[in-house]
Amino acid sequence: MRAFEAAARHLSFKEAADELYVTATAVSHQIRHLEGLVGTRLFERRARSISLTTAGMRLYPVLRDSFDRIAAGVIELSTANQHLRVNTTPAFASKVIVPALAEFYCSHPDLLLSLDATEKVVDLRRGDADLAIRYGRGDHSPLSSQALAADCYLPVCSPQLTKGRPFTPDEVAGSKLLQFAWRNEHLGGPTWGRWMAAAGVDGFEETRCLTLSEESLVIQAAIEGAGVALLSSVLVASDLASGRLVQVHPLKVAGLTFTAVWATDSPKTALIETFLRWLRVRISNEGNVPPDIRPEKG
Length: 298
Hints:
Layout: H1 2-10, H2 13-20, H3 24-38, E1 43-45, E2 50-52, H4 54-81, E3 83-88, H5 90-97, H6 101-107, E4 112-117, E5 131-136, E6 144-157, H7 169-173, E7 177-180, H8 192-199, E8 210-212, H9 215-223, E9 228-232, H10 237-242, E10 246-247, E11 253-262, H11 269-286
Parallel strand pairs: 3-4, 3-5, 7-8, 7-9
Antiparallel strand pairs: 1-2, 5-11, 6-9, 6-10, 6-11
Helix pairs in contact: 1-2, 1-4, 2-3
């Protein structure tokens, strides 16, 4: 049938043979065999040319469409195997992955990335995503996992607010303070209350903080000069490096860990490993902990 389709498309046994890397005689024999199977001639053969019979004209578009569908299916399957669906938080997506997408596609032009930015924990074993970047304490069994970066939280703000000098703990406490709502409070994520306790500030009330729903919103509010925010060293690394944000006091509080998680039996393990190699370099190049901070007081 492949020989018939090629010969019908070219109206030449020789050109069909060249395309299929066989001889014209072999093409002719294959077509005669097909004609025997269907019980009718498919070509009118002349001394220097061939043409389709009525039966041949009926069969050709059917085969042509079938071969096109097969080719499209192979391409679709190949593309699907190069498609990686990544789930992560809006803040990690907007501050770590999205700013480097152009760089990623330059080095991995054949890998198609879909990014689902949500606080929702998706079911990887059910196939809701191929890979998740999660923030927590690192216990993700029975899934496969790989720690990407240990985190800490720093008091930062726009350089407009600091007047070129660091703040005392009391000055931090007296500032307009920004925070975000932790979706998973059971994890014990960093809060202004923890930072103030470590800094020796008494009587601090977290209710006076301006609370936004997403960490990415707090980062942008801090950049715009809305106040002092306690933010992830991983997520604000580029903003600190560029001077959009400054650290107002050297005290840090320990955060949690960014961890890559995927189904152990995932058919896309090779793609996942490729993406994670790039992501680890990306995080390392950003430098997730500024050098001038000291450990949290205990």
